[in-house]
Structures are given as C-alpha cells and as structure tokens.
Amino acid sequence: MGLETAFGHSYLTTRLDEAVNWARKYSFFNYPFVTACCGMEFMSTFASTYDIARFGAEYPRFSPRQADVLFVVGTVNEKLAPVLKRVYDQMCEPKWVVSFGVCATSGGFYDNYATVQGIDKIIPVDIYIPGCPPRPEAVLDALVKLQEKVAKESVLDRKYK
Amino acid sequence: MTSYLLETLKSKFPDAVLETHAFRGDETALVGKEDLLRVAAFLRDELGFDMLMDLTAADYLPRDPRFELVCHLYSTRHNYRLRLKCPVGGDAPAVASLTGLWAGANWFEREVWDMFGINFEGHPDLRRILMYDGFEGHPLRKDYPLKQRQPRIPHRD
C-alpha cells in the first residue's frame, strides 16, 4: 500500500534520510592527502586487485572542494598541520575524515618534536585505520564502516560546527 | 696499513690534524676548527675531492667541545672518500662555512644550523630549512626537551 499503488511502478516511497544516505554512501569522492609510505597501500587499494570501485569510492578528486571524504594517509607533522586544516576547511559539508595508518592516527612511533600525535589534534576524524601500513582489506573494512556510519546519519545533522 | 690520504694530510698540516683513523678503508681525519677551511681547500684543490657528499653534525653533550661537524668528501676523479671531522664548542658554536669551496654545502649547513644551532660564518643565506618560522631552539641538540612540542596552530581538545 501507499503511493506506489496509486501511481504504479513509477514511484518509490522511502524516508528522505535513507534515500540521501544511500546515495551518499555509495558515491564517496575522496581527497587523498598522502604524505608518506602508507600511500603505497592506498594506491594498492585503489588498483584493480582490491578495487575500491566495488564500493563506489573509486573516484579521487584532487580538489578538496569537490571531495566528500578526506583520506589522511601518512605522517602529519607540525609544519604541515595548517595545510591539513586548510584542506579540511575547504571541503563542503557533508564531509568525513578517515585517518589512514598508525601515524595519522596517533603519530605512531614518531613521538618527537616534529610530528602531530594524531590528526584528531587538528581536525575531527570519523574512522581510524590501524596498521603500519594497513593492508588493503583493512582499508576496505574502514570504508564499509564509514558507509554504515553514514547510513545512520540524518540530513538535518550538521556534524561539525 | 698506512693511508696515502691521511699521511699526506698529516705531513702537510702537522698542527691542524688532531687525529686520524681508518677502519676497513674508511678514513677519517679530525681537524681543528680554525684550520677547517685551509684543510678543506687543500683537499679540494690538491687531492681532487671535488664533491661534498654530506655535511652533518653530532652532539656529544657532556663533552667539551660539544659538537662535531662531519663532512664526507668524495673524489669523482680518483674514486676515493674521506671523512673530515671538526670539533665545535662554546655557547655560540660557530665554524667557517664551506659554501665557498663546495656550493652544495649551502643546504647542508642550513640543516645543521636548523637542527644543532651551529653558526656558519660566511654562509650566504643561513636560515632554517626544515623547521618552520617561529620554531624556537634546535631540536637535535641533546638538551632539547624530548616531549616539547611547538604547534603552529592550536590543537583541538
């Protein structure tokens, strides 16, 4: 029952959140902020063997203004922190951040004068991927987890003020 | 085994060469700070060391003089190498710049200035190369606090 019966198969009713989130979670445009060796695993995840296109996230945009997901791949040091913040600030809502690898997540073993001890000191992070570097399976798992997270959001949310 | 390079240096600069040693063909000469430029010029012009492969420093904190400048020289003509070291100390450590002999010393010396705070007299443009403007201190000094951070933008939380 519902509108479908009145209008035939031309219509489908659903909740707005579900329709929007369905579209969002299967069409991430990502911005790779690649600073270090984790980039190799990132490329591997994108290449045909692991093929992140299966999850609809194969399209990197090299302008943050066109991106939905910021992948911070590798070590971020204090010198680079303002750049990362600026890239993040340029992204339009809705936006999500994935911290790729242990350096981006916590500084890793670079507990020194130069390294930011986790990018969440600079910008909010949605998903953390452990590993040095993470295997492509872990990256895909993180992507699926991000999709699950996006599916639970509401279009009315303004996450980051 | 006697080394041609080290013997030549010692006989040419008996006062300047403080110490020499060689380990499995790795030859090292330690020269006094005041004589660095003179010895380096001789090495380049007379012994054919046309390439400065590396220039760095080490901090041996309790020791005096505290720092040691380390230069790795290479001769493309003769295919031999020499490590030239130079003790540097004092509250405002300084040593003559090698940029006049090897242009490649420029960025190496900026790095040593940045990391260790050794001043290079005669350097054309001695400023930080790795750390950012506003960074205070020299992080590879042994007395730089291990946990000290100098963020450029405020951290969250």
Structure, described:
- The complex is a heterodimer of chains A (161) and B (157).
- Chain A has a single domain, classed as 3-Layer(aba) Sandwich (Rossmann fold).
- Chain A is 34% helix and 13% strand.
- Chain A starts with a helix and ends in a 10-residue tail after the last helix.
- The model of chain A has no long low-confidence stretch (mean pLDDT 89).
- Helices cover 20% and strands 29% of the residues of chain B.
- The longest helix of chain B is centred in the C-terminal third of the chain and has 12 residues.
- At the A-B interface, helix 4 of A face loops of B.
Distinctive features:
heterodimer; A: 161 residues; alpha/beta; Rossmann fold; five-stranded parallel sheet; 6 helices; 5 strands; B: 157 residues; Beta Polymerase, domain 2; two-stranded parallel ribbon; 29% strand
Q: What's the topology here?
A:
The complex is a heterodimer of chains A (161) and B (157).
Chain A (H helix, E strand, L loop, with lengths): L2 H5 L8 H10 L3 E6 L3 H9 L12 E2 L8 E5 L7 H10 L5 E5 L1 H5 L20 E3 L6 H16 L10
Parallel strand pairs in A: 1-2, 1-3, 3-4, 4-5
Helix pairs in contact in A: 2-6, 3-6
Chain B lengths: L3 H9 L4 E7 L2 E6 L4 H10 L5 E9 L7 E9 L4 E9 L5 E3 L8 H12 L2 E3 L36
Parallel strand pairs in B: 2-5, 6-7
Antiparallel strand pairs in B: 1-2, 3-4, 4-5
Fourth-level CATH superfamily of chain B? NADH:ubiquinone oxidoreductase Nqo5 subunit
Q: C-alpha Rg of chain B, in Å? A: 17 Å
What distance separates the N and C termini of chain B? 63 Å
**Rough outline of chain B:** elongated
Q: Output the CATH class name of chain A.
A: Alpha Beta
The CATH topology of chain A comes to Rossmann fold
What is the CATH first-level class name of chain B? Alpha Beta
Percent of residues in beta strands of chain A = 5-15%
SSE string of chain A: HHEHEEHEHEH
Query: Can you name the CATH architecture of chain B?
Result: 2-Layer Sandwich
Mean pLDDT of chain B: 92
How many H/I helical runs of chain B? 3
- What percent strand of chain B? 25-35%
Please describe the biggest sheet of chain B, giving its number of strands, its sense, and whether it closes into a barrel.
Answer: 5 strands, mixed
